[in-house]
Amino acid sequence: MQTAPKKVINGWAMYDWANSVYSLVITTTIFPAYYVGITSMGNSNGKHYVDFFGRQFINTSLLDYALALVFLIVAVSSPILSSIADYRRNKKVYLRWFCFLGSAACCGLFFFTPQRIELGVILFSLAALGYWGSLVFYNSYLPDIAAPEDQDRISAKGYALGYAGSVLLQIICFAIIVKPVWFGLDAADTTLGVRISFLLTGLWWFGFAQLALRVLPLPSLKERQAKKNVFTNGFHELSIVFRQLKQLPVLRRFLLSFFLYSMGVQTVMLVAAGFSKKEIFPEPEDEPKLLFTLILIQLVAITGAIVMSRVSKRIGNLKVLIVAVIIWIAICIWAYFIQTQLQFYALAASVGLVMGGIQSMSRSTYSKFLPETKDTTSFFSFYDVTEKIALVIGLFSFGLLEDITGSIRNSIVALIVFFILGLLALLYTKRAVSRKEPLPGSRAC
């Protein structure tokens, strides 16, 4: 196939620009710092319990459990929805609705105050459902619009645009929070700037997503109506994909390795702010330093995604992923022992170098291993389900270890184990590729 016109490629990448603000502002920086801050007030013990509909949880563990539930819902529902989307050829419709759900929930977080913990957690969960639910349909466009030799570059372009856009909005939000008087806000209301940041995130996500939705291809009405009883056909399509996976040993092994190291990578990204706030930046006056450091991670990640894409052309995707996972293992061991803010700055820069690259490389490597098929959404739903189940296990393990030991630092041990297992599985995958000729388009792996 030929790569789609530049207008379509740029439009596809713009969805990364649109939705990555959720990942940075809500998942990684402002929301976690705000949530930990307001749920730590009045708690004299180090565990910082919070009430949620009459039941007590450690504050950070509650968010871990909430996200684990969201990812379980996405993992169960996305294969059905994506199979239906493949049969009706209307994946853009699902992308649009998940985008609307997530962006609306972000806007709703404007009303999240210290007196409305339940509302905040529920809207946070709905925003996550919208974000992660949309990604399976967004990712599945990659093999539809890009030739195999261009997929690394285009995937990296999406991530780079995403990091750039999210950092831009993050800087704006940072200014609103630190200098509210510049924007005519009441400095006495310490939550207003943060809540405006949530509102801006939702508006940014919804607004810029329209640029992508306008140009992404939508098949003809005749093709979309070609299949009937789509719910039954969706399950039938899943059974076909399952049978195909049995005949694709390299793809199966890669999915196993992706599953294992994703338990580490994605969990780190989702819990990093909570860990940093509790262990490194516990005082309210430290929050600007924390936000600045998390912005630094995103800036470095842009470079990391581009560098890994270029290195993969020389040594292959799998070798790049193996090196990245080894670096992740070292980072987690280092994180367990850090004590000072200066050490954390150096650690943050290291995380940025591999964070964007490993996500971009994983997406494009999987795309290269796919067989020739029009039902790319169904195959990417397996990729998505693999990631979501990994997140369910990773987040639940991280939260449970903190509950059991009383220290979020001890939860890092689980991440180290996940990365080591992922490394072994990647070596197992590389061994299979060396023995057998890869699929067309996958020679760079």
Produce the secondary structure layout.
Blueprint: H1 6-28, H2 30-40, E1 49-52, E2 55-58, H3 59-88, H4 91-108, H5 117-139, H6 142-145, H7 151-178, H8 192-215, H9 221-224, H10 230-246, H11 249-279, H12 287-315, H13 317-337, H14 341-369, H15 376-405, H16 412-435
Antiparallel strand pairs: 1-2
Helix pairs in contact: 1-5, 1-7, 1-8, 2-11, 3-4, 3-5, 3-10, 3-15, 4-5, 4-8, 5-15, 7-8, 7-12, 7-14, 11-14, 11-15, 11-16, 12-13, 12-14, 13-14, 13-16, 15-16
Explain this structure to me?
- By secondary structure, this protein is an all-alpha fold.
- The chain has a single domain (6-435), classed as MFS general substrate transporter like domains (Growth Hormone, Chain: A), CATH 1.20.1250.
- Helix content is 78%, strand content 2%.
- It is built from 16 helices and two strands.
- It has helices spanning 6-28, 30-40, 59-88, 91-108, 117-139, 142-145, 151-178, 192-215, 221-224, 230-246, 249-279, 287-315, 317-337, 341-369, 376-405, 412-435, and strands at 49-52, 55-58.
- A hairpin with a 2-residue loop joins strand 1 and strand 2.
- Helix 11 packs parallel to helix 15, helix 13 packs antiparallel against helix 14 and helix 13 (317-337) runs antiparallel to helix 16.
- It is globular.
- The model is unreliable at 437-444 (pLDDT under 50).
Short description:
This protein is an all-alpha fold and 445 residues long. Helices cover 78% and strands 2% of the residues.
Labels describing this entry:
445 residues; mainly alpha; Growth Hormone, Chain: A; single chain
